[in-house]
Amino acid sequence: MTLRLAILASGRGSNLQAILDAIDAGTLDARVVGVFSDKPDAQALQRVAEPLRWARPPKTFASRAAFDAALADAIAEVVPDWIVCAGYMRILGPAFVDRFAGRILNIHPSLLPRHKGLHTHRRAIDAGDAEHGASVHLVNAELDGGAVIAQARVPVRAGDDEEILAARVLQVEHPLYVEVLRLLASGRLDVIDSQPLLDGHPAYIPLSLEFPHS
Ligand code: GAR
Fold first, then answer.
1. 190: domain range?
2. For the whole prediction, is pTM greater than 0.85?
3. Interstrand relation of 104-108 and 131-138 (parallel, antiparallel or unpaired)
4. 19 DSSP assignment
5. In total, how many domains does the chain have?
6. pLDDT for 107-118, tens place per residue?
7. Environment class of residue 59 by beta-carbon count within 10 Å: exposed (0-12), middle (13-18) or buried (19+)?
């Protein structure tokens, strides 16, 4: 079944581009049915045709909840199978999360549960971590707190700065997100009652996947 994906993005959109490239290459059976942003000038929006774009500045809404409700209504209109956060830098409120419970994915640039929140690369370096990476997880009401579905690791090397480490992590983010979506499209991966299952079992979760990196 072709997965209908609603993408949420606030910035560059390189993860979105990796998803679009896999769809174009015929290696991911999915369709991007909308790109939604809190930043009208986000580069991510430019990666899809104009009719697929939705962007509103949250400041123009009376409250955080009102913005979330407008976003949720716009997403519901395109009837997605999955809501895919790809560099979406705004917290989704409880009403939004409840409305799409168990159907929202996020990619986070750390090996969760380590380094939830912002500045993950700097914090991994400062903590002296030998390994860092990225996690694809379900979104629930707790920040970066939903069940982790899959992770990919990279080494932290002597002399790494934030930028170098972020670039190394990004190299594995792209194939990691695409692989999780591929597993969902094939039906091998499913989420039942907010519990990810691979081939019907929880035991393989979180998947630890390996990809080339610098
Ligand atoms: C990615 O590194 C993603 O993991 C991170 O933002 C970047 C977006 O890059 N997401 C978060 O930090 C979410 N808390 P992109 O716009 O090029 O896909």
1. 3-209
2. yes
3. antiparallel
4. H
5. 1
6. 999 999 999 999
7. exposed
